[in-house]
């Protein structure tokens, strides 16, 4: 495999850009191809079969672009299609946000009790519970769906009074719970990291950003395979619909502008 | 046509139940069949061609159930597939929320300036602007997308502090505008009617609930055609996915429980 080859990152929509942000920070020399399936978002309300089918179409697209690694930046796909994508990708390593977030949370020396927040679909699927139990069958897990946070992030209200009240209301579920860490189980949620930190500042709770975690895992895996790129850093961005809306929102998620979002039908 | 035949009402999801509520209030003797396309919601981000195709599938389903009238309780379908549905429905009258809301707003004696709120998709489509201009080319229109209101309604936060602050923030756009009426251009928004009224109470602004308007139009049209049902009142409810979630939310939208939501693939 080629060191200069890009890393493929995909999500059902825009949220995965928070993963791109962390990967660019951890691996500034890597070339990145992002695909956001904006025509078919949200995946969370679709059947597993449909989600697998979409995820494999995207995997094909990325493999045609000769990626050296695939990062699944979508919790729904991580929960329902991870194995199928790895099978389709053959030798190409596939990392996903659920495994990455879980691994990072479990690496914390104390983990008697883990909190998880995510969309209704992610929390309802119990995918984090299953992933955490694979590491440790005895750990206590408290999870809470926070359906308002995705639309809040897309409206750009991440640190105003309304955002603080909504975060406060959701995190009230954890007030009487002695959680050691809180997994942000949705790629939109890192936009609320400061607001969540302010809400939890009195307590020693580690906030696990699965974007940071998957970026760290990607760096370790590329190093292990001697596939780190010595001199790249390009970023190509594809969506399946409404590139302009994506471009408008992108700066908020990525922390920088995207000059040229291309539309592609799979 | 048969007086006992049901009225068919459909939406991309659950919002259309606010229309059902008004139709049941205005026409308690009518039998109603509702279809919510919960597998494919939201329609607003899909292309017009796809929305038309879905809408015609639903029209077919309703016609197989021998409906005597079709009410389009979805702003996206009203904007992009009204004529196609009327063509497919032949002699069966088809009413839609955009025409109904616009007609009701224009019936107000003073209408120099109309406000419209709706989803990003509805406001972006300018469908209300076109419908209003057909009545009156000179009227001023101020519109505002309120993307947080749909998730707020589905979370059940329609009259708490958070809802009041969000409504206040959105309606601030109309503060310096002398609007005579405000069209609630999304079937979720009637759930915020009281909150919106409180926000606007100092000003003589008529709030136009397109659910009320379409129910009134339906009653007039059935009376004109001598098709009013003397003795019905049944309600059948179909969705394309997740009937349980629909059932949970339904009470909030309809004001009463739905005993038996059936799932159907079109």
From TrEMBL, chains A, B:
Pathway: Cell wall biogenesis; peptidoglycan biosynthesis. It is an enzyme of class 5 (isomerase). It holds the Pfam family Asp_Glu_race. It comes from the Bacteria. Coiled coil: none annotated. One of its GO terms (biological process) is regulation of cell shape. The active site is at residues 74, 186. Its EC number is 5.1.1.3. Belongs to the aspartate/glutamate racemases family. This is Glutamate racemase. The lineage of its organism: Bacteria, Pseudomonadati, Balneolota, Balneolia, Balneolales. The gene is murI.
């Amino acid at each position: 495999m080629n060191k200069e080859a890009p890393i493929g990152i995909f999500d059902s929509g825009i949220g995965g850009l928070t993963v791109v942000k962390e990967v660019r920070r951890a691996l500034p020399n890597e070339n990145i191809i992002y695909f956001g399936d904006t025509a078919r978002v949200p995946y969370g309300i679709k059947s597993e079969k449909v989600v697998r089918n979409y995820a494999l179409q995207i995997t094909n697209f990325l493999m045609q672009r000769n990626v050296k690694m695939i990062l699944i930046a979508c919790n729904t796909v991580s929960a329902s299609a991870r194995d199928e994508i790895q099978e389709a990708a053959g030798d190409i390593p596939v990392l996903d946000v659920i495994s990455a977030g879980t691994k990072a949370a479990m690496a914390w020396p104390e983990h008697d009790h883990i909190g998880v927040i995510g969309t209704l679909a992610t929390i309802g699927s119990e995918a984090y519970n299953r992933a955490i139990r694979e590491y440790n069958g005895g750990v206590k897990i408290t999870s809470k769906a926070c359906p308002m946070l995705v639309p809040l992030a897309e409206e750009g209200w991440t640190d105003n009074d309304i955002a603080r009240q909504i975060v406060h209301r959701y995190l009230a579920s954890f007030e009487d719970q002695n959680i050691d860490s809180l997994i942000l189980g949705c790629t939109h949620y890192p936009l609320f990291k400061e607001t969540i930190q302010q809400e939890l500042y009195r307590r020693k709770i580690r906030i696990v950003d699965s974007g940071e975690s998957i970026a760290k895992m990607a760096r370790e895996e590329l190093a292990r395979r001697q596939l780190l790129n010595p001199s790249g850093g390009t970023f190509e961005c594809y969506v399946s619909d409404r590139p302009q809306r994506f471009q408008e929102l992108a700066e908020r998620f990525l922390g920088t502008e995207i000059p040229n979002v291309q539309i592609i039908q799979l």
